Amino acid sequence: MNFTWLDWTIIIGYLSLTVAIGLYAKRFVDDLSGYLVAGRRLRVGLGTATLIATELGTVTIMYMGQNGYTNGFSAMVVGLILLTAYLLVGQTGFIIEGLRKLKVMTVPEFYELRYNRPIRILGGIILFAGGVLNMGVFLKLDGVFLSHAMGFGDTGVTTIMIIMLVAVGLYTVFGGMLSVVFTDYMQFAVMSVGMLLATIFALKAVTIPQMAQAVTSSLGESGFNPFASVDLGWTFVIWMLLSNFAAAALWAPGTARALSAESPKTGKRVFTVASFTFAGRAMIPMLWGIVALTMFPGLTGEGSLSAVPRMLGAVLPTGVIGILVAGMLAASMSTYSAYLLTWASVITRDVIALLFGAKLSEKAVMNITRLWVVLIGIYLVIFGLFYTMPDIALKYIFITGNIYTAGALSAIGFGLYWKKANNVGAYTSLITGAFAPTAFLILSEVQSGIPSWLTVFAKSNYSGFISFGLGALGMVVGSLVSQKFSPPKDITALLKQEA
Amino acid sequence: MALTWFWMGLFFFFGVVFWGVSVWAMIFGGRDLIEIITTENAKIKARTQPQVKARPAPGVE
Fold first, then answer.
1. Count of CB atoms within 10 A of residue A322's CB?
2. Residue A370: exposure state from Cβ atoms within 10 A (0-12, 13-18, ≥19)
3. Which of A375, A377, A497, B57 is most buried (CB neighbours < 10 A)?
4. Are B22 and A277 contacting, i.e. CB atoms less than 8 angstroms apart?
């Protein structure tokens, strides 16, 4: 057992404080905009803190750490890609500026504004499906992390998963985005300190030459050169660039920060400032993965997920491990709360409310959103317990994200910047964009007997890469062939109005 | 070893940037958070306090 009474005191004290603060924020929520986009009150400082906190969960540490463990220093190329993608979006305001100007509360609202209501419903369903599949493994990865770091091994995973979910569910259900923002801030502070301490102790445990030796003997040249790696290579780099660019612009939990910003300009600045932390966000856990490879070589498959928490459990002293686990819990909770709220609001506002056609009151929409937070929570526990990932966690996370981002990048990007984008183009881009990632998830379950022409879709790098091409092709061809019977809608006037 | 130092150099640089920006965001984010709490508390106070009716000036109906 790695944990002592001091560590437990830190954890219990911290958890109680977080839930209390989340519930305190409830008193400031009096309408739907307060619940979903924090009343659009975020400035650069708080917006940046909350964006970094949302994008930095234990799951991030786990999949980045596993990537460091399985690919060595080559994995760090992902950090450079993340920096480039978020900086580009922050500087150009690509998509986020347009969405904030239009004052939409969720991404699919744009579909109705630019196209029509059925496209909003389809976009909402695809976003929800990709989002919850993506989030499906979060709880499992976090449970594995915390259980191994605390010294429970695999036995504590389920209990930890349930406790975490109940705590997060409580304040997300009641407080909405403002609770998320309040707790994000506190969790961001604890997480930053925890990561710094963990890095210092990890680097004290092994030397740089020892790490180089371990990477060389386990991975050879592919551990240092991402382009020489079989697992990574050019296809991986291009896929990651496209995925991260799309995710930075329109992955709903992050985009919600731009939609919650006090102005479009503030939204852009938040992304620009936060982008500088994204390389570190990837490289820090990847280095932990390399330290873990040095200390515990030979773990394969899902076993490699436990490498980083095992290493941290071994190198961190009493008290420090309490702070780190509190930080990790903090990070998980801020990620869950933001993601739960985002996916619940998408399925409620963009699908259910529209499908039933009835004019629901704001209070009813808030209550249905809360119900979905609970339902998604239950799904997370069940999915986490029974699903086995077909590839390393990083690739699973991105390929499930592509179900939505590949089509949406074209539907929203072309919708904002190309006057000929029309309803047919939006339908085809959303469907063709989702095709390749869905095919990958199905084919990876089938394993054998796949026709040769489909094998390309059974590889995550190719499947993810192709999905963006298919999405763009669907939009361009679909729009161009149907201009006469489906004239595009003009939203130039709406974009020019004062934010 | 050269490639190891290349990646470690990048790691240390972006590590410093990560914690530097984090400290900045904590300071300015904290300031924004305090402002939201103050404004919202003032709004709640104004809503819950009973409105005092102004007395008409003498001679005014």
1. 26
2. buried
3. A377
4. yes
Q: How many residues are recorded in chain A?
A: 499
Q: Which residue has the tokens 């592509």?
A: A402
Is some CB atom of chain A closer than 8 A to the CB atom of B23? yes
Place of tokens 């939409």: A104
CA dist A356 and A315 (Å) reads 55
Residues written for chain B:
61
Contact B18 A182 (CB under 8 A): no
Q: What would the pLDDT profile of A386-395 be if each residue is shown by its tens digit?
A: 887 777 788 8
Which chain A residues are Cβ-neighbours of B40 within 8 angstroms?
27-28
Is B3 near chain A, with CB under 8 Å?
A: yes
Dihedrals φ, ψ of A261, to 5°? Answer: -70, 155
Indicate if ipTM > 0.95. no
Give per-residue pLDDT as tens, A129-186. Answer: 988 988 888 888 888 888 888 878 778 788 888 887 777 776 666 655 556 667 777 7
DSSP letters spanning A16-45: HHHHHHHHHGGGG--SHHHHHHGGG-B-HH
What is the model's pLDDT at position A410?
A: 93
The answer to whether the beta carbons of residues A37 and A260 sit under 8 Å apart is yes
- Per-residue pLDDT, averaged over A260-283, amounts to 83
b (16+ CB within 10 A) / e for A134-163: bbbbbbbbbbbbbbbbbbbeeebbbebbee
Q: Which residues in chain B have Cβ-Cβ distances shorter than 8 Å to A281? A: 18
A283 interfaces chain B, CB cutoff of 8 Å: yes
SS3 helix, strand, coil % of chain A, rounded to 5? Answer: 80, 0, 20
Is the Cβ–Cβ distance between A147 and A312 less than 8 Å? no
Residue A42, strand partner residues: A261
Contact A79 B14 (CB under 8 A): yes
